[in-house]
Amino acid sequence: MTGADPAVEAARRAWGAGADWEFNDRTTGGMSLAAAREALAPVRALHYRIDIAATSCVEECEVHEDECPLDVKVPVCRECYRIAEEADLYFSERPGWHEPVAWPCATARLAYTAEELERK
Fold first, then answer.
1. Each residue's pLDDT tens digit, 65-75
2. Whole-prediction pTM value?
3. Residue 111 lies in a domain
4. Are residues 18 and 8 in the same domain?
C-alpha cells in the first residue's frame, strides 16, 4: 500500500467500489473514511515510532556513566520492540537485533499513509 491511504483503501473495499470511486461525498465517502480511520486507531495506538539509543560501548565500560558519546538513535516500532524485549531481555545485544523491530514495521505500513510514515 505504499503511497496509498489505508483508510481510503479500506473504505473502497467495504463499499465494493471501483478504482474511480471518489470518497468526497459527505454521507457515504466521509463516513466510510471516518469508520476506516476509527478502525485503525487501536493499531496506530500500539504501533508507532520511538527512537532507541543503540550503544557501542561494552557492558563493563567505566568511562561513560549513562550514555556513550558514540550512541546512535535507532528508529523502532514501540510495540514490536516491547514484544521482542519481553520475549528475550537480551535481544538488543544480538547482531541484527533492530531488523525485526525497525520502523516502519509491517503493521505500521498497513495503518499509516506514506506521508505519515515519512513524518514520524
1. 666 777 788 99
2. 0.68
3. no
4. yes
